[in-house]
């Protein structure tokens, strides 16, 4: 029942457009949500960080390190989510809950998602280790390490949740309504993968930049 509710798309804003055009525009809009949320979030963080920026005008390394910190990179996704919420609420004229925020068994669904994710990640890591793709030099269970890992969990939830909202909760139902479920799953999953690849590229580029400078 919940899966059917998630697939339902209650907005009628896009019905006048041809199906093929709407699918293309919807995919482009996902990227625009990312760009818009990142720009707005960056501007807000810059304004809020103005005292820090003024006091560190001569210390460019400190500024770069702060704005490229993992917390900032993941936290910026919250603004992307807010942009999507605003679009759904005021332009599409439908409740935000239609994106999949159902109260029925929500705690069980969250725990189930965590369980499946942990199992998938553990299997992937285990297979990589068995076939020599990963080498464990040491295992660190110090207090600082555990605190850092635990403190990043909410930010990873924001990042992963934003990607799921855009591709699964928003894009998939729109494409499904104008075509079919198989095509909707294929397109949304492909776009989800592209987003992940682009993020990996950005992270690697950041690492190369830091190694040079």
Give your account of this protein's structure.
The protein contains nine helices and no strands. The model is unreliable at 204-213 (pLDDT under 50). 77% of the residues lie in helices and 0% in strands. It is an all-alpha fold. The termini are far apart.
Task: List the main descriptive attributes of the protein structure presented here.
213 residues, mainly alpha, 9 helices, 77% helix, globular, disordered C terminus, Rce1/LyrA-like_dom, endopeptidase activity, hydrolase, metallopeptidase activity, transmembrane helix
Summarize, please.
The chain is mainly α and 213 residues long. It contains nine helices and no strands.
In total, the number of domains comes to 1
Number of helical stretches of at least 4 residues = 9
Query: What global shape is seen?
Result: globular
Main beta sheet, described? none
Strand percent estimate:
under 5%
Listing every helix as H and every strand as E from the N terminus to the C terminus, the arrangement reads HHHHHHHHH
Structural Rg: 20 Å
Which spans of ≥5 residues are poorly predicted at pLDDT below 50?
A: 204-213
Structural class: mainly alpha
> What is the rounded distance between the termini?
54 Å
The number of strands is 0
- Looking at the chains present, what oligomeric state does this protein adopt? single chain
Whole-number mean pLDDT: 83
Helicity level, as a percent range? over 70%
Describe how the helices and strands are arranged.
Layout: H1 2-7, H2 19-48, H3 50-55, H4 60-67, H5 70-75, H6 77-91, H7 106-130, H8 143-178, H9 181-212
């Amino acid at each position: 029942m919940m899966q059917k509710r998630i697939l339902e798309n209650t907005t009628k804003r896009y019905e006048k457009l041809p199906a093929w055009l709407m699918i293309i525009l919807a995919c482009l809009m996902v990227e625009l949500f990312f760009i818009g949320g990142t720009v707005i979030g960056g501007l807000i963080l810059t304004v809020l960080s103005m005292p820090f920026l003024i006091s560190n005008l001569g210390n460019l390394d400190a500024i770069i390190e702060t704005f490229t910190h993992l917390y900032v990179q993941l936290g910026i996704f919250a603004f992307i989510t807010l942009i999507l919420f605003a679009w759904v609420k005021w332009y599409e004229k439908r409740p935000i809950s239609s994106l999949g925020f159902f109260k029925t068994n929500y705690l069980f669904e969250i725990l189930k998602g965590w369980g499946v994710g942990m199992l998938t990640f553990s299997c992937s890591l285990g297979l990589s280790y068995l076939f020599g793709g990963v080498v464990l030099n040491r295992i660190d269970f110090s207090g600082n390490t555990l605190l850092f890992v635990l403190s990043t969990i909410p930010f990873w939830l924001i990042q992963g949740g934003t990607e799921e909202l855009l591709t699964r909760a928003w894009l998939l139902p729109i494409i499904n309504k104008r075509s079919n479920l198989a095509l909707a799953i294929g397109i949304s999953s492909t776009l989800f993968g592209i987003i992940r690849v682009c993020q990996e590229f950005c992270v690697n580029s950041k690492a190369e930049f830091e190694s040079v400078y």
